[in-house]
Amino acid sequence: MSFFTKTIAERTPQGQRQSVQENSYTAHVYNRGGAEQLAGVIITDQEMTSIAKVPQSSYNTPSAISFPEINTYLQKYQDPRQADAIMKVQQELDETKIILHKTIESVLQRGEKINDLVDRSTALSAQSKMFYKTAKKQNSCCVIM
Q: Whose CB has fewer CB within 10 Å in the chain, the N or C terminal residue?
């Protein structure tokens, strides 16, 4: 798309507008020219309705064009993740992946803690057996008659 937009912007004469159809997209170009060499390109699909709302005959007098919906579109498309469904799904997948990584890390840490508790329990059991044997020896030396 960037090659396409660059090419049609360069091929549009200064001070002119044109629309170029490429596959299922239409590129609308305005080359302001001047010292800034500024050109604007908008690429739309077949669902774009601005052509019906702004007739091509009014392109020669831009100040006469009234298209209030443009502010809504510009606001909506400032964040491409909100406008593009695929990008939005990708963002949700990335967030889910981060949550899963954190969950796996906490499960692994919990497993390590359980292993520590098992080791402590085994050591405590061994100490209690030693205490029991020692106590049994101590008590067996004193027989009451």
A: C
